[in-house]
Design brief:
three-stranded antiparallel sheet, 200 residues, transferase, binds 5-O-phosphono-beta-D-ribofuranosylamine
Length: 200
């Protein structure tokens, strides 16, 4: 299974995918919309091809997305993984990769779509928080959820301590979900997500 990963920053989820033992997938390329980010170094250190496509150099989202599609499709990927990629994608991009585009979002969706999820969970007085992996559809952070992990919110937590605890779960579940897809256990059907042929 040929996987292309899109990042904008640190790339700790990319690292977790690179580090999984006996992984049933190959990360064939990493794209970033930002130059100089640590995730690019992680990819290079692992011998993975990298591309920087600065969104600021394109007149609009559609043109930027078409430039990404051109690069991504050279790798003939089976799966596109968004791992801390901080750009909203156009309908054309999402449709082009329909059923083979997944994202990780640091909340228990459908709660807290968008940004600052950890702070919002704390301010709401939630007892639990977590992370979701989902197929990407045209609704931002709204595609069908594949897997979630829950963490307790502890007394004294701030957004940073909570984010760190959530990240620990991200690094466990995201490589596993990519493995499910690679092993053809995971599919997006008209009726929703199927794992081993069973609706989730
Ligand atoms: C993660 O918290 C992920 O949930 C969110 O962006 C962050 C990416 O972290 N979408 P990293 O770049 O993988 O370290």
């Amino acid at each position: 299974c040929r996987v292309v990963v899109l990042i904008s920053g640190n790339g700790s989820n990319l690292q977790a995918m690179l580090d999984l033992a006996d992984k049933p997938y190959d990360i064939v390329a990493v794209l970033s919309n930002k130059d100089g980010v640590y995730g690019l170094q992680r990819a290079a250190d692992a011998g993975v091809s990298t591309h920087v496509i600065p969104h600021t150099q394109y007149p609009d989202r559609e043109t930027f997305d078409q430039a990404m599609i051109q690069v991504i499709d050279q790798y003939q990927p089976d799966l596109i993984v968004l791992a801390g990629f901080m750009r909203i994608l156009s309908s054309a991009f999402v449709q082009h990769y329909q059923g083979r585009l997944i994202n990780i979002h640091p909340s228990l969706l459908p709660k807290y779509k968008g940004t600052k999820t950890h702070q919002r969970a704390l301010e709401a007085g939630d007892k639990e928080h977590g992370v979701s992996v989902h197929f990407v559809t045209e609704e931002l952070d709204g595609g069908p959820v594949v897997r979630q992990a829950v963490v307790d919110i502890l007394p004294g937590d701030d957004a940073d301590t909570l984010a760190a605890r959530v990240a620990g779960e991200e690094h466990k579940i995201y490589p596993e979900v990519v493995s499910w897809f690679a092993l053809k256990r995971l599919k997006l059907s008209d009726s929703g997500v199927l794992l081993d042929g069973t609706p989730l």
